[in-house]
Design goal:
alpha/beta; Rossmann fold
């Protein structure tokens, strides 16, 4: 289990720190050691019980929840106490001399007495909770707890009449065509995957009703979140053979006998089975064991919310899962109006705007649309009433308070309950972000790590964070957003956001100020998200100032509203001040008072200096300093940030030349400028030395690039990602030594065969974004001896500042080149492409290519040139029909309508360049004359 979680609070993290405190590094007063050993034993026992309670948290009674909450709260308080003590006391006394040890013990004596007093009080609280545990017999209840069988909230979908739905005909046709392939007689499984509430069950059952009569045997069953295989098999048997089912009931068959009987009945028969809502891969394997593999054209539909399960279902059939899509805007409105006005009448004009806002928050989720429409159908068509509903969606109050929404909440909760404990914690953390927020995936993972939610099993902690993110995406609980061909952002559906805010409130996991009136606040706020509070949350803001020493995470999204003094937040792990642009130097002067900080972001246009106290943040892992339009200076104490892993600064930040010598843990360094330091050469050398340690991701400009990679034998053994933000003259020769580089973003003025050879010598390159701004010299032939791992290639030929035609570009991929390539993106200007370009590109060699896109840069090109280029592409498509080329135009508004206007612009450009040459020559001649005059006069 992770160090910090909703299940056990901070107990796992705390137990590790108590063990450290008992080592010889820390000298404790007599009696304190025994008390800490007592805490260690009691908390270990409590951790076991908390984990058991977490496994059945959906059925806990109020007494068990109260005890669990108090113990979690206690774990946070004890950890805060231990953290403060360890920070004040320090460690490593054994390495000190006698006099230094003596002086140190005298200086820290008050800290030793202080922890003795606090430990005594905390021990009393632990004893109290231990006694309550015995008094309520909570351990016994874990073994005697009997599961209450609830009605599955999805069960109605198995029998629902779809006449009132919209946009189901197309998906039904798609699934039917996948199933009813007469040429394929082997058993085929079609998996339908999507989030809860999208209508997967409804779709599967409509297909079942339409084509089920064509099969000899058919059955439809729903899998519970905890699979009861015996009952599920009995359900199937009762639908395919009632006599056999009667025999099984009287004989009391187990699941093995049931599997044998079902296989016996279905062998040699044509059957159709719907398995609804499969949760686990192992569940699918066990259920599927009952179905015989035959060549009679049998079919199975499986629905699931989990992408990995869907892939497994299809694995033997060689197909892809059917991804259930949300309703589009038109169909969403049709369904909404159909449920409210019944007759299908359009929405009244005065309700159009608020209806649009409600539908936007529903996000195309049929369940949400139907639920909200049903709520409004029985009420007067009043704009104020509709607006109250719209304002409630996505801020945590709707599902929490409205009993009419219980079915939707229960269906969404099924996905939450199915998550392991650490993923529940990671998901709840997303409640700190405002609705409709595009959340940076990298930032989210860094905050998870800073909060201590992840536990390193093996390998890098970053990989554990990426695995958690992928699992939440695969569970369809968060929505990935692609940018430049990769997933860089994600968002949470408003219905899911409402759910996790509600759950967070129940668990006192995080406090969200989002504009909703806050009547009360928790006694101790652990995580705080300030989105928009104004005057509605005065009570909460006062509570924050009173309990700030307990806050572990403070994220401020609001702009220009209530100001909070950030001093005194001693337990902070995460401080994100992105929304506080009003911050000045005085507001961050006490930044060192939060020694536990792991993540710090300051976004302000007014801060000109970071205080030297930042050097006290010995645990800091991520530092982001952006938004500065004025010069921001970093202190020399930055060198003491030995645990800093990621540093992001604006290009205009002034950096100490020797700041990196103590940052050997640094892995990510972005937006550094060599000219924003007092000693550029020393600065570049520091980064070069840093590259020998752990540097994996570097984002910099051409000056540092030139210093780092001009040497053909430079060594950056761990560098994986390199971004050069400004144009370099040519590909630096030293890049050939980057053997572990996987991602390269490069913009060069001139590119030739030598530059291509340097790039191809990088054996690990998987992603390449190459922009050429001036000229390509010669033909570019990508052969079989390079780019063997390249999966995505984005090539742009821009010719900045010129609109005249040049020698034609020829880029060719030979047979066997780029075998791993999946995506090829070309951005080209019409005046640089030969008619043979696409014919000679080598499209026929792209066996694994899934996406080929050409963007035509129309900027200052003639319409005829653009259309000619499009005709070249059309001919290439005819020659290679197996590869679809996606063609689009950019900068079309800057295109010349005809050749005459383009020729006039070319003539004007030539004239201006000639005039510029003459002017420059004149200035140079005048300068030579002045120099000669000074030589003659001796001045």
């Amino acid at each position: 289990m992770a160090g910090v979680s909703t299940a056990t609070g901070a107990i796992s993290s705390l137990l590790g720190k108590l063990a450290t405190l008992l080592t010889n590094e820390y000298k404790l007063l007599a009696g304190v050691r025994k008390q800490i050993e007592f805490l260690q034993r009691e908390l270990s026992s409590m951790q076991v019980l908390l984990e058991r309670l977490a496994d059945m948290e959906e059925k806990l009674d109020a007494m068990a929840k109260d005890w669990r909450g108090k113990v979690r709260d206690l774990s946070y308080d004890i950890e805060d106490c231990i953290d403060r003590f360890m920070d004040r006391l320090g460690s490593g006394e054994a390495k000190r001399g006698f006099m230094k040890r003596t002086a140190h013990r005298l200086r820290t004596l008050w800290a030793r007495h202080d922890i003795a007093t606090q430990i005594k009080d905390l021990k009393a609280r632990v004893i109290e909770e231990s006694q309550r545990r015995d008094r309520y017999k909570l351990d016994e209840s874990c073994y005697t707890w009997t599961k209450i069988v609830d009605i599955d909230p999805r069960i109605t979908a198995l029998y629902e009449d779809v006449s009132g739905l919209v946009a189901i005909d197309g998906p039904v046709k798609d699934i039917t065509s996948l199933l009813m392939d007469d040429k394929e007689m082997q058993l085929k499984v079609v998996a339908i995957v999507g989030s809860g509430g999208l209508g997967k069950t409804t779709l599967a059952m409509e297909v079942y009703r339409k084509i089920g009569g064509d099969f000899q045997y058919r059955a439809s069953v729903s899998v519970s979140r905890t699979l009861d295989l015996e009952n599920l098999l009995k359900d199937i048997l009762s639908q395919i053979d009632k006599d056999a089912y009667g025999e099984c009931q009287s004989a009391g068959w187990g699941f093995q006998q049931l599997i044998r009987k079902i296989k016996q009945i279905l062998t040699g028969k044509r059957y159709f089975i719907v398995i609804d809502d499969v949760w686990k891969e192992q569940d699918w394997k066990m259920v599927k064991a009952a179905f015989s593999k035959n060549n009679n054209g049998s079919r199975i539909i499986a629905t699931t919310r989990i992408t990995g399960v869907a892939n497994l279902c299809c694995s033997n059939s060689g197909g892809q899962p059917y991804q259930m899509a949300p309703l589009n805007d038109v169909d969403s409105r049709r369904l909404f109006c159909k449920r409210i006005f019944y007759s299908g009448d359009p929405c009244p004009a005065d309700l159009e705007e608020v209806a649009t806002r409600i539908l936007k928050k529903c996000g195309g989720l049929p369940l949400a649309i139907i639920t909200f429409a049903s709520l409004l159908a029985g009420k007067a068509h009043d704009k104020d009433e509709w607006e109250r509903l719209q304002d409630s969606i996505g801020i945590g109050s709707l599902l929490e308070k409205d009993g009419n929404l219980k079915v939707m909440k229960d269906i969404l909760l099924l996905s939450y309950w199915n998550l392991p404990h650490h993923l529940k914690t990671c998901l709840l953390y997303l409640c700190i972000y405002p609705e409709d927020c595009n959340i940076s995936c990298e930032e989210l993972k860094w905050k998870w790590m800073a909060e201590g939610f992840l536990k390193r099993q093996c390998g890098h902690l970053d990989q554990a964070a990426q695995n958690c993110f992928n699992e939440l995406v695969n569970s369809n609980l968060i929505q990935p957003i692609e940018c430049d061909g990769s997933v860089q952002y994600c968002r949470v559906h408003d219905m899911v956001l409402d759910l996790i805010i509600s759950l967070s409130n129940e668990e006192n996991f995080a406090t969200v100020l989002n504009g909703f009136i806050c009547k009360s606040a928790p006694n101790k706020i652990r995580r705080l998200s300030m989105q928009s509070c104004g005057g509605k949350c005065n009570g909460t803001v006062r509570a924050i100032t009173e309990t700030k020493s307990h806050v572990r995470s403070l994220t401020m999204f609001q702009r220009g509203e209530r100001k909070i003094n950030i001093a005194g937040f001693h337990a902070l792990r995460v401080l994100d001040l992105e929304g506080y642009e009003w911050l000045e130097n005085k507001h961050v002067k006490n930044i060192g008072s939060s020694p536990q900080l792991r993540f710090l972001r300051i976004h302000s246009n007014k801060i000109t200096e970071i205080p030297s106290e930042i050097g006290k943040l010995q645990h800091l892992e991520t530092l982001v300093l952006d938004g500065s339009v004025s010069s921001l200076t970093l202190p020399s104490t930055m060198v003491h940030l030995h645990k800093l892993v990621r540093l992001f600064v604006s290009p205009n930040v002034r950096l100490p030349a020797d700041m990196f010598r103590g940052m050997q843990a640094l892995e990510v360094l972005q937006q550094v400028d060599i000219w924003r330091t007092s000693n550029p050469m020393r600065f570049a050398e520091e980064i070069r030395e840093l590259g020998k340690c752990n540097l994996r991701d570097l984002n910099t400009n051409r000056e540092i690039c030139w210093h780092l990679f001009r040497d053909p034998y430079c060594t950056f053994p761990y560098l994986q990602v390199l971004r050069i933000e400004t144009i370099v003259e040519e590909v630096p020769k030293g890049m050939a030594s980057l053997k572990n580089l996987t991602n390269l973003y490069l913009e060069v003025a001139e590119f030739d065969k030598e530059g291509l050879h340097i790039l191809m010598s990088m054996p690990s390159l998987a992603y390449l974004q190459l922009k050429v701004t001036s000229v390509v010299k010669g033909e570019l032939m990508i052969c079989t001896n390079g780019f063997n791992l390249l999966m995505e290639f984005r090539f742009a030929y821009l010719l900045l500042g010129s609109i005249e035609p040049t020698d034609g570009l020829q880029l060719t991929f030979s047979l066997g080149a780029v075998p791993a390539l999946r995506q090829l993106h070309l951005q080209l200007r019409p005046m640089v492409v030969l008619s043979e370009f696409f014919a000679n590109l080598g499209i026929e060699h792209f066996s694994g290519l899934t996406h080929l896109q050409v963007e035509i840069d129309c900027g200052r090109a003639a319409r005829g040139q653009v259309e000619a280029m499009e005709s070249y592409i059309e001919r290439a498509i005819e020659l290679h029909p197996g590869h679809k080329i996606h063609v689009s135009r950019i900068w079309e508004h800057c295109m010349f309508e005809d050749d005459m206007k383009w020729e006039e612009a070319v003539a004007k450009d030539r004239k201006e360049r000639e005039e510029l040459k003459i002017y420059i020559a004149k200035i140079q001649e005048e300068e030579r004359t002045r120099q000669n005059d000074r030589l003659v006069t001796g001045n």
